[in-house]
Amino acid sequence: TCALPISPQPPVLHSLSNAAAAACAGCYGHTMADTRPIGFFDSGVGGLTVLREAQLRLPGESTIYLGDSARHPYGTRSDEEVVHFASELAEVLIREGVKAIVIACNTATAVALPTLRTRYPETPFIGVIRPGAAAAALSTRNGRIGVLATAATVRSGAYFTALKDENPALQIVQVAASELVPLIEQGEHGSAALRSAVAQVLLPLTSITVAQRVDTLLLGCTHFPFAREVFASCFGDTVAIVDSATAAAGTLREVLAVNQLESPGSSRGTAADAGYAGHAAPERASIAPTHRLLTTGDTVQFRQLAVSLFGSERAVETVEQYKVPAQS
Ligand code: DGL
User: Which of 78, 82, 204, 73 is nearest to 148 (CA)?
Assistant: First the structure.
């Protein structure tokens, strides 16, 4: 609980559960201690790239990640299917008691974000497209950006719109690369098959003179950072690689702070941080954060990929099986 006086008109807090409200009775808008987990979902392992960045920035926050590996890829599906699957996954996470949901999937963000926000108004949803577009627009020097994404993301025009909102003068080359997703989902991160598939999909960007090329490549699919080095090797150092995963993690931190949803001691580098801009030290975390990983697919394969990304066995204890209704 909080020693600060109760303000006469408490601000409306986003989806504060009864448990969280009880834990902080009488505390309106000051050092709110909301220890509920943050939910993440993706069509498979791709969103783990967002989870990793979020855990680095928010070490005090608990997380729960749901990967729909049994039904990947999403990028070649119809909009209706993607909206349907994304809603199912969001509902699972809401039932688990999350305080916010990161749609750690560009395809689901591009196609389903407005529907999810409308259907579940109590839950703040953070998409990956706007943060990725903002980062790419800040990165380019020649005003030419390549966007590599799934067919559904390209079809939606979401990156085109978001990038033009950042800077209408940008020239944008979108390349659909759905075929890379199953290779990455199967763990082929540096294989000859992946290298040759990447070289092939990048031809529209690499088969022109360096002077005409994009100087920024936006990895508009959360699976792609798994193979970042492969993309980089196709360009040498002439192109900056920006990914939506890293950018979205920064936005998540801001959303938690603005909505007063932070766990005590949760973040680094925000106004809540000790020593930052003269603010007082944050409350210390009283409960160690917990991290759960769930997949609708093969738990052993999912765990292997998570370990390869997080770089340590210890970081990934167990992976739980979750059966979506269609499978059960
Ligand atoms: N990782 C996802 C994305 O960011 C989905 C890829 C897929 O399932 O096709 O688009």
Answer: 204
Whether the CB of 260 sits within 6 Å of ligand 1: no
In the annotation, is 221 catalytic? Answer: yes
Q: Which of 2, 10, 23, 40 is nearest to 125 (CA)?
A: 40
pLDDT digits (tens, 9 = 90+) for 196-242: 999 999 999 998 887 789 999 999 999 999 999 999 999 888 899 99
To the query of whether residue 234 is one of the catalytic residues in this protein, the response is no
Sheet holding 291-295, edge to edge: 125-126, 100-103, 38-42, 63-67, 291-295, 319-321
Return the biggest CA–CA distance within the chain.
Answer: 64
Whether 156 lines ligand 1, by a CB cut-off of 6 Å, is: no
CB 150 within 8 A of CB 178: yes
Which residue minimizes the CA distance to atom 2 of ligand 1?
105
Instruction: Report how far residue 64's alpha carbon sits from residue 117's, in angstroms, rounded to the nearest whole number.
Output: 19
- Among 41, 45, 106, 296, the mutation site with the greatest number of ligand 1 atoms within 8 A of its Cβ is 106
Ligand 1 and 83: CB distance under 6 A: no
For helices 129-139 and 106-119, give the axis angle rounded to 10 degrees. Answer: 130
CA pair distance 229, 210, nearest whole angstrom: 20
Q: Specify the pLDDT at position 11.
A: 37
Q: Is 181 in the pocket of ligand 1 (CB under 6 A)?
A: yes
Measure the CA–CA gap between 182 and 44, rounded to whole angstroms: 10
